[in-house]
């Protein structure tokens, strides 16, 4: 999911649905007048096919999605099912092979700062062999690996110059100061 002011985007297995908050409709919601202060109404559906979309964020008013199937960051819009604009430097081609299980991005001040993947591999689902310890944190846009050895990292958040991310295999949340390479 991604949220920006009065817009909400939700990824499903084959589409992204964008909803708009309509507070003027919420006040008169049937059977519960003056209870709700907002109601999100579906306004757009983007047919994406199965991209295994993970994190999404609105960046500069564009909907950016982590496209796990194609190991890239993509723009979701009405022109194409997805428009790739970045992939890790170790990925050699755009292919629906989930080569590194790219799955998260962290944004600060409306700019992508970091991305997370389960491995720095370049073969079809090559990350699976080391999913317990092959996770990486990369700077964007350089793709420089600044932290490795992570256990299935997901859902990074950049907050006060630190990255918070979940390591699902170890059932923990970690705090990282990327410039110091410590966890």
Outline of the structure:
This protein is mainly β and 183 residues long. 2% of the residues lie in helices and 48% in strands. It has one domain: Neuraminidase, CATH 2.120.10.
H/E element order: EEEHEEEEEEEEEEEE
CATH superfamily: TolB, C-terminal domain
Question: Order of strands across the biggest sheet?
Answer: 1-2-3-4
Query: Tell me, what is the CATH class?
Result: Mainly Beta
Low-confidence stretches: none
Given the structure, what is the number of helices? 1
Largest sheet entry? 4 strands, antiparallel
In the residues, how many domains can be counted? 1
CATH topology: Neuraminidase
Task: Label the overall shape.
Answer: globular
| Coarse structural class | mainly beta
How much of the polypeptide forms β-strand, as a percent range? Answer: over 45%
What Rg, in angstroms, do the CA atoms define? Answer: 18 Å
Kindly report the average pLDDT value. Answer: 90
Number of strands: 15
What gap, in angstroms, lies between the N and C termini? 27 Å
Indicate the CATH architecture: 6 Propeller
Bin the helical content. under 10%
Please outline the helices and strands.
Elements: E1 2-4, E2 7-11, E3 15-21, H1 23-26, E4 40-47, E5 53-59, E6 62-67, E7 72-76, E8 83-86, E9 102-108, E10 111-117, E11 135-139, E12 145-150, E13 153-159, E14 162-167, E15 172-176
Antiparallel strand pairs: 1-2, 2-3, 3-4, 5-6, 6-7, 7-8, 9-10, 10-11, 11-12, 13-14, 14-15
What are the salient characteristics of this protein?
single chain, 183 residues, mainly beta, Neuraminidase, four-stranded antiparallel sheet, 15 strands, 2% helix
